[in-house]
Amino acid sequence: MSGLALLGFGPDGWGRLLLSGCLLTLQVSLCSMAIGTVLGGLLAWARIRGPRPVRALTAAYGIVLRGVPELLVIFLLYFGLPSLIASLWSAMGWPPPGLLPAFVTGGLAIGLVSAAYQAEVFRGGVAAIPVGQFEAARALGLTDLLCLRRILIPQMLRITLPALGNVWQFNLKDSALVSVIGLAELMRVSLVGAGSTRQPFLFLSAAIVLYLVLTSISDLAFRTLDRRFSQDAKEAS
Amino acid sequence: MADGSGFYAPTLAQLFGAVPVTLLILLVSMTLATLLAAVLTACSASASPGLRAFRAGWTFLFRGTPLILQIFMIYYGLAMLPWIRWGPAWPAFRDPIFCTCLALTCCCSAYIGEVFRGALAAVPAGEIEAGKACGMSRLQLLRRVIAPALIRIALPSYSNEVIMLAKSTSLASTITVLDITGVAQGIISKTYRTLDVFLCAAALYLLINAILSAGLRAWADRLSIDRPTPKAVEPL
Amino acid sequence: MTSPIVLTANNIRKTFNGREVLKGVSLEARAGDVIAILGGSGSGKSTFLRCLNLLEVPDDGEVMVGDFRAPLARNRKGRMVIADPRAAARMRGETAMVFQGFNLWPHMTVLENVMEAPLRVQRRDGAEVREKALALLERVGMAAFAGAYPKRLSGGQQQRVAIARALATNPKVILFDEPTSALDPERVRDVLALMRSIAREGCTMIVVTHEMAFARDVSTLVVHLADGVVESSGSPAHMFGLDASPAFRGFLAPAP
Predict the structure, then answer these.
(1) What is the pLDDT of residue C151?
(2) How remote is the C-alpha of B217 from its chain's centroid?
(3) Chain B residues whose beta carbon lies within 8 Å of the beta carbon of residue A72
(4) Domains in chain B: boundaries
């Protein structure tokens, strides 16, 4: 069968499967990004405002999760988390749950790593806001919560957007690593197709093209958003 | 859990045995990627639109796709091409370590190239002008003014890329290389002590990264010592 | 009948990095007072001012603004900390501060800057706050810039907006931390003139400044801080006259 037919949407074509792989890639990337943003925000907050032991813990989290290869984090969570849960469960007298679905562990693993990087992005964003603005807010009686809502977050979104765009691209590419624990995202589908049809060059090229499409669209989206945000600031001046 | 140190010591020893493989991949890829990145940066500053397009395309390709896909493409995909399979370079392309190093080199060169490009733009224009004004040739300018400033500016981001490269060497295990991760998987398949072995492997990577970071930081400190920090001006 | 006391500071002490910057400074401000705090660099005057609204936490002493006592307490390590952040915010709501660096919020327009505290802290009605804010901007001469962002304004203009922002919450006392030190000479004049007219309206002000003419002409009390203590204080006539303390006279006219 010709290459194009193999990749196409005919009865023997892998096109539909490749696209559903793309979809799964996007889904797991979005989930891990969301986990990373929420956890990263909490970590940054704890690092800035927490008591000394909490600050040390969050710093350690960052060092460990940015220093260990993502592949190992995925493996550790995929194999380690169930055994941890199993020992907890058996302590309660419940039967062990077995392996968790690859989407969950994969998304969680990438999310935990992403959180470490996003915490650094958020820390940098806060540092970029002159401390005088917070002093002025506090001097007028604004509570911490108000400072957060009205002074910090509006400016943070604009300042950290480029860096968050970078983090998103890394999430997107790291999602390919989840293929090693069997998740049927784009990388895995193309490998399966390659193995089944003995055409690795064809399928891996297709995967390359599809990833390039995904990263290009993301790049465009973030650049448009960035321009829109700084447009607001430019209109002001 | 009853083994205690009886398990960890031989495991760590076995994992340590794989460190040279990891280090080999790391050092070869880091060196070649840096050299290639310098070439790419030169392309970006070149007058030739072809070279600039080449750099843009290279960066687009290698930053836009996952490294694991690049590794698989070089190891499995290229083997399909007749001029690779039956060509003179086949013994190299058949070797998973070579393929890993090639993929890592190409991929990281794109990232490091971007770091250098940004640093080049950040070299203070005044310093370059001063060099030109006192008659430096282009080569002198490059060696005495631009390169030192570029290295100093690029070092923090470059250090980050080196750490990322060190982590990425673990992907070699996916194409049968017996690096730290590969050996770890082997031990696990025999002993089923998944959590413990992977934790040991993680600790080893952290150690390597700590040493790398310390070395790079020391280098960065040395570079800024060369620059005199201006003393605070005493009020009159 | 004497005017009510709006602010009291008792025996404020503060140490930074092992150096004792404030060694027991006390102050009492009545409604309508304009207190000028003068002193050389390192005398602790900015630190003292910032202790009054708890931007710095004094290591010892107490502060009272109106009916609010500063919620300070010693933590387990013996350090003085803010025991109740909510109460601290409420106390700060009774004061306002004008900074050397203006500190306007860049992502809000001039009008929004002035409206922010009355709207969100004092929870007053939106239309009323807007009207009052526009009137204040008119008062400081910046009404035309209500919709502009701080980026577009010069230093003097920003400081005037900052003063409007400080007035907007009807504070019991306004703290000025070297409000003209970052401005060039013509702007200094404008801002001082504005501060002068505010003082004439009866606003209670505590001003850390280097502007001697302002201190001499506008203030009701001059305090000379040196080496972390109140070296001398008194009416401007006394302090700028011949029977002022030698240390203060030395400060005013340093030997060449």
Answers:
(1) 87
(2) 16
(3) 170, 181, 198, 201-202, 205
(4) 7-225
Q: What is the mean pLDDT of residues B36-49?
A: 92
Best residue in B25, B58, B62, B68 to probe A by mutation, most A CBs within 10 Å?
B68
Q: Amino acid letter at A121?
A: V
- Contact at 8 Å (CB) between A164 and A225? no
Contact: C151, A158; criterion CB under 8 Å? no
**Distance between CA atoms of residues C96 and C179, nearest Å:** 13
pLDDT digits (tens, 9 = 90+) for B157-207: 999 999 999 999 999 999 999 999 999 999 888 887 788 899 999 999 999
Determine which of A151-165, A207-221, B102-116 has the lowest per-residue pLDDT on average. A151-165
CB-based contact (8 Å) between B57 and chain A?
no
Segment B226-232 shows an average pLDDT of 46
Strands C72-74 and C80-82: antiparallel
Q: What single DSSP character describes residue A89?
A: H
| Residue A201 to residue B80, Cβ atoms within 8 A | yes
For C111-146, write each residue's pLDDT tens digit.
999 998 888 888 888 999 999 999 999 999 999 999
Inter-chain residue contact C109 with A142, CB threshold 8 Å: no
Provide the 3-class DSSP secondary structure of residue B206: helix
Task: Enter the pTM of the model.
Answer: 0.79
Over residues B7-23, the mean pLDDT reads 88
Q: How many domains are contained in chain A?
A: 1
Q: What pLDDT sits at residue A115?
A: 97
Burial B76-106 (b: 16+ CB within 10 A, else e): bbbeeeeebeeeeeeeebeebbbbbbbbbbb
- Residue C14 main-chain phi, psi, to 5 deg: -150, 135
For residue A130, what is the domain's CATH number?
Answer: 1.10.3720.10
Number of CB atoms found within 10 A of residue C85's CB: 14
Look at the domain B7-225 and name its fold: MetI-like fold (1.10.3720)
pLDDT, residue A53, reads 93
Neighbours of A222 (CB within 10 A): 17
Q: Is the pLDDT of residue C175 over 90?
A: yes
Q: Which among A68, A166, A167, A187 is the top mutation candidate for probing chain B, defined by the most B β-carbons within 10 Å of its own β-carbon?
A: A68
**Residue numbers of the domain that contains A99:** 3-236
The residues that bridge with C74 in the sheet, in sequence order, are C80
Interchain contact, C109 vs A158, CB within 8 Å: no
Residues of C in contact with A154 (CB under 8 A): 107
Chain B residue with the nearest C-alpha to that of A209: B65
Query: Which chain B residue shows the shortest CA-CA distance from A194?
Result: B77
Rounded to whole angstroms, how far apart are CA atoms A93 and C148?
66
Q: What is the ipTM of this complex?
A: 0.88
For residue A142, give the nearest of C97, C120, C162 by CB distance: C120
Nearest chain A Cα distance for residue B11, angstroms: 16
Mean pLDDT of chain A, nearest integer = 89
Q: Among residues 14-43 of chain B, which lie with CB inside 8 Å of chain A?
A: none
- Is A156 within 8 Å of A126 (Cβ atoms)? yes
**pLDDT band, residue B4 (cuts 50/70/90):** low
Instruction: Quick: pLDDT tens for B113-170.
Output: 999 999 999 888 877 877 777 777 778 788 877 888 888 889 989 999 999 999 999 9
